[in-house]
Amino acid sequence: ASGAGVQFAVFAPRGQEPSGGDPPPNLVRAEFLANAASVAPEREFLVGVHFRIAPDWYIYHENPGDAGLPTTVELKLPEGFTAGEILYPEPARFLQPGDITVYGYREEVMLLARVTPPAGLKPGGLASLQAHVRWLACRNICILGEQRLELRLPVETESRPGSEEVFSEWLDRMPGKLTGLSQTQH
Predict the structure, then answer these.
(1) Per-residue pLDDT for the chain (186 aa), expressed as one digit of tens each?
(2) What does the H/E/C string look like for the chain?
(3) Cα separations (Å) of 18 from 3, 36, 39, 56, 138?
């Protein structure tokens, strides 16, 4: 299940004027995924927020450069679950008017984090993981957006893999931070 997106501010970057046209609907769409179809005690898995960005627009890296705001993911996990840092793929570099350099992503990006369930997790029921995501999408204007997402995974004695193709693609784009974590663990 996913929450509705909210866009709450519009402004023009320095040196650029608004085009006068309305931004496209679904400017940025975010989906919350896991590389596990179920979770199990102490079985690490990955979660990711997959952003799809409207043509000609971009969102920012955690280090946006000379302007912009970082794209952020705040995880809210069930009691006893732990998460590692949010991991960002290598960004593209964009040069804006006035020799302003920014770093970000066009078309799509997936931000990842490792999650580990607690040892005492009891099989049965669902684990509810939540993500609050925020971004600044820019073209010749910039629009702040946010979305609240939820992912519910069954709790079992052994974890099962899920969404392997999309995770494999984005793991390959990470700057070496996910060594030692297999794609899926059973």
Answers:
(1) 444 444 444 444 444 444 445 666 789 999 999 999 999 999 999 999 999 999 999 999 999 999 999 999 999 999 999 999 999 999 999 988 889 999 999 999 999 999 999 999 999 999 999 999 999 999 988 999 999 999 999 999 998 898 888 899 999 888 875 554 544 443
(2) CEEEEEEEEEECCCCCCCCCCCCCCCCEEEEEEECEEEECCCCCEEEEEEEEECCCCEEEEEEEECCCCCCEEEEECCCCCEECCCECCCCEEEEECCCEEEEEEECEEEEEEEEECCCCCCCCCEEEEEEEEEEEEECCCEEEEEEEEEEEEEECCCCEECCHHHHHHHHCCCCCCCCCCCCCCC
(3) 29, 43, 47, 14, 11
